[in-house]
Design a protein that fits this description.
Layout (H helix, E strand, L loop, with lengths): L18 H11 L1 E11 L2 E12 L2 H6 L13 H27 L13
Antiparallel strand pairs: 1-2
């Protein structure tokens, strides 16, 4: 005759669920955790912090329309190159405009020297 155990069996010992299965389910379906923290003093709201956390695989996130990491220069080398290319083009345009202004008749081509 066996007596029932007082404590549940830990995961991995007959329960059928292990960490890999749980992680696969979470990444496949995605998990959203949302919460707000509000600090009030005498019915005056001093601070509100909104927390949103999404845990999902890259493929699932793209399915949901979330792909901000692809355009963030801190996370994507392609985005960094695109930003540098854009900045370089803007600087070239500014330089061309300045050169045109400097070459217009009646304008000084050099800045006046400061008195000692």
């Amino acid at each position: 005759m066996t007596t029932p155990s007082r404590f549940p069996e830990p995961y991995g010992q007959g329960s059928g669920a292990n960490l890999a299965d749980i992680l696969e389910r979470v990444l496949d379906k995605g998990v959203v955790i949302a919460g707000d923290i509000r600090i009030n003093l005498l019915d005056i709201e001093l601070l509100t912090v909104k927390l949103r956390l999404i845990v999902a695989s890259v493929d699932k996130a793209k399915e949901m329309g979330i792909d901000w990491w692809e355009t963030d220069p801190a996370l994507s080398s392609r985005a960094r190159r695109d930003e540098l290319t854009r900045e370089n083009a803007e600087l070239r345009e500014r330089l061309a405009r300045l050169e045109e202004l400097a070459l217009e008749p009646g304008r000084r081509t050099r800045a006046p020297k400061e008195a000692p």
